[in-house]
Amino acid sequence: MRLVLLSIMCAILIQFSVNAQEYYKLYFAAEGIYKVTGQELADAGIPISQIQPQTLQLFSDGQNILPYSTAEPEPQLQEVAIIVEDGGDGQLDPQDYLQFYGQSLNRFEWDAGAADFRFRSSPYDTLACYWLRWNVEPGKRSAVKNGSPVSGGAMLRDAFTDRLRLEEDHFNAIKSGLIWSWNLFGQNNAFEHSFELSGVAGTEALATARLVRLSFHYSPQPGTMFFSLNNLPMGTATLSKTLTATVPIYEGTNSLQAYYVPSVPQDTLEQSGFDWLELAYPRYTQLAGEEMKIFIAPTSGIFHTKYRSGGDPVDIFEVSDPFNARQIFTDNDSLFEDTLAAEHKIYWLNRENFAHSLASIQPGQRNIFSPAEGANYLIITRRETEPLLQPLKAHREAYNNFAVKIAAVEDIFDEFGFGRQDPTAIRNFIKFAHANWNPQPQYILLAGNGYYDYRNLSGEYPVNWVPAFEISGNDNITSRAVDDFYVDLSFSDEPGFPPFPQPFGSDFIAGLREGNIERGDANNLETIFQNFNNIVPQIPIGRFPADTPEELTALVEKTIRSELNYEPGLWRLSALLIADDEFRGSGGGNEFFHLEQTENLANNTFPSELRIFKLYEREYPFAGNEKPAATRQLINWFNLGNR
Length: 643
Hints:
Elements: E1 21-28, E2 32-37, H1 38-43, E3 57-60, E4 78-80, E5 83-85, E6 97-102, E7 107-111, E8 116-120, E9 128-133, E10 144-146, E11 155-157, E12 159-167, E13 190-197, E14 204-215, E15 224-229, E16 232-237, E17 241-248, E18 252-261, E19 270-284, E20 291-306, E21 314-318, E22 326-329, E23 335-351, E24 360-366, E25 377-381, H2 386-399, E26 404-408, H3 409-416, H4 424-436, E27 443-447, E28 470-471, E29 480-481, H5 526-533, E30 541-544, H6 549-564, E31 574-579, E32 582-584, E33 588-590, H7 593-605, E34 611-616, H8 628-639
Parallel strand pairs: 10-22, 11-20, 25-26, 25-27, 27-30, 31-34
Antiparallel strand pairs: 1-9, 1-24, 2-6, 3-4, 3-9, 5-6, 7-8, 12-19, 13-18, 14-17, 14-19, 15-16, 15-18, 20-23, 21-22, 21-23, 28-29, 32-33
């Protein structure tokens, strides 16, 4: 017998449409005020002498992860109000600049549904991306508001409730899914972290801490995690849990403490850890450092906010609407005035000569893909590996008479991910092609491996060739990569889950977010993952899981060779089914569902014409933690060839 490895065969070569628009992408990490000089633009290769400053335009999509549900509208670029200083001569010189408020991927913002400020983050990328263009049309400029105190009877505001999020993603214990923790507890292991608070206007804060338990299937009874802030116990957890308590805080140094007691000595299967801490604490409104974000909950009235008590001059911005930030001027050296009408406000205080620096300025394009294109077979790969797929493209065109195209995943991220490496952009691109192209893609090939570590936090994956779509759970069974998501073109959320997108309060949004356990039955983890258990692929999709260009070349060559050197025979009607339900280690297992599923495939799914061969590892003895007899039998099946 000979076993056949089935793969999806397809390709696409990008041809920029005549409507492609030239832009430059501005990448940055931190939230705040950015000032980009003409010299910086020139250093990035932009011919600033050709720029008409009044036509400078900046765009953002809102810097959120893409909605998973196709029922939600896809975000669009919206113009951002900016300040342009050209010296009054109508030219952009090296010393001139544009200034704007930039949203980071990780930030607190107003959540109307929760009627509170909540934290938003991305598990996919670290840098926000704004889009700059010029000489197309007049640009949008920031409005200016007079904030000089003139109203009598105004209320004085000199304190507010600040928000702080402490989080560092260092460990993904099961090397799958999106759940990362700051540390990993070992037996009787402890974790402590000190942090600074300044301008503290009270003695207590509302603290929320997240503890996570990540385990391998059949791990023993979980141990117990203990968490304290400034030596005040906040609570304990065995499963993943969010703890909330009122805690003491201090001006200057504060500390959090966590430790873990395992239930089984020398437990190596369970990996628990501290995830993040949020504080809502009273803080004075006067700017003490370089910058400060002031959160004002919905209220009404005229307020005089004390923003300064000495030091260098301060720039004041209202950034409640990040697309329409406006600068507030005041002739008072310590107060500014604003009127609120049952609305929230966010102010940004910035030392006059302080501004953040961009991470990079890169050329980019929009409207890359034309609705007028078409392809039966679509290959998605990185730009550097496109040439390696040309032989497969030529083979499909000649051998199968297919229209074949190759798309660079970098262009997909630019067009559908707005410059960020959000894997849902791949689904949105395929959805676009399926809805507009003639012919429609009938087969999809992802050419290159994909990894769980989107941000390369481990340092092990500097190139994520074609990212996989990760589903998160608290163990290595429910956390998995699912390429089928990319070809479910009508995926939507299940009833009972928050609408998409809503990545507040945890690291991920509904369906992926382990925080759903707090809104459902903590003992029924299935309620967390049911969204993504209902993925229905609509187009065949496959992957060449190559880690290097050399491996990809070999896969292409073997695919072509196996088809050109076609050998008919009974072996093409043979199938080998392999199942393993036993586990050997610190835990134990005697499950049967893999065997049951395999038997169901053999009896109810596979065509009756197939010759079915089975290798069930339950039938083979252990030798330590391995089953060498089963390994030998597997090799024997392959070595039988076409017999």
